[in-house]
């Protein structure tokens, strides 16, 4: 926890979670499970090898991490647009 004018500051959720390495590991495990799921695997089996990293960078940024996703990988609008093309149903979301 850093200080600002001798007042403690609260770390971002990104820092509490363990930083970028933790997010990258989390989404590696998450997508291993997605690809092992009979309902989700057909939707995600053609994702690029970079997809896991993009998602880790996006979520890390949302939770207070560096702007890796916004600065070099895309925008929230582009991410939503790509997912709309997947035609996810309520069954996929559960």
Describe the structure.
It is built from 7 helices and 2 strands, in the order ββααααααα. A hairpin with a 2-residue loop joins β1 and β2. α2 packs across α4. The longest helix has 18 residues. It has a two-stranded antiparallel ribbon. 61% of the residues lie in helices and 4% in strands.
Q: Spatial order of the strands in the main sheet?
A: 1-2
Query: From the helix content, strand content and strand pairing, which structural class follows?
Result: mainly alpha
Shape: elongated
Q: How would you characterize the largest beta sheet?
A: 2 strands, antiparallel
The helicity comes to 55-70%
Short description:
The chain has helices at residues 13-17, 19-36, 41-44, 51-62, 68-72, 76-84, 90-93, and strands at 3-4, 7-8. The protein has 94 residues and is mainly α.
Task: Please give the structural blueprint.
Layout: E1 3-4, E2 7-8, H1 13-17, H2 19-36, H3 41-44, H4 51-62, H5 68-72, H6 76-84, H7 90-93
Antiparallel strand pairs: 1-2
Helix pairs in contact: 2-4
Keywords:
single chain, 94 residues, mainly alpha, Globin-like, two-stranded antiparallel sheet, 2 strands, elongated
